[in-house]
Write a structure and sequence with these properties.
Layout: H1 10-15, H2 31-36, H3 54-61, H4 67-83
Length: about 90
């Protein structure tokens, strides 16, 4: 197995041969694991029209790219806080 001094680029990773990948620390999944495994569907995003105050939008946009993702994260945290501990 080869050790690398620095992180590999995606192209370098793609060029690594299967037999050179160290999988010795990966646990094998037995029948019990698969019997008890649950399918978890991703919580997909949905395109909507949402009206927000200009000052709120300006604040999130001032952080640069990804402002919609940041708005979504704030809303997710709010929803979790409203649900309370589970």
């Amino acid at each position: 197995m080869t050790r690398y001094a620095k992180a590999l680029t995606p192209n370098e990773i793609a060029a690594v041969e299967d037999e050179d990948i160290d999988i010795s620390d990966i646990e094998e999944f037995d029948e019990l694991f698969w019997r008890e495994a649950e399918l978890v569907e991703p919580d997909r995003t949905e395109r909507i029209t949402l009206r927000v105050k200009r000052s709120v939008l300006d604040h999130f946009r001032s952080g640069g790219r990804g402002y919609q993702t940041r708005i979504n994260r704030v809303l997710e945290h709010y929803v979790r806080a409203q649900r309370g501990p589970r």
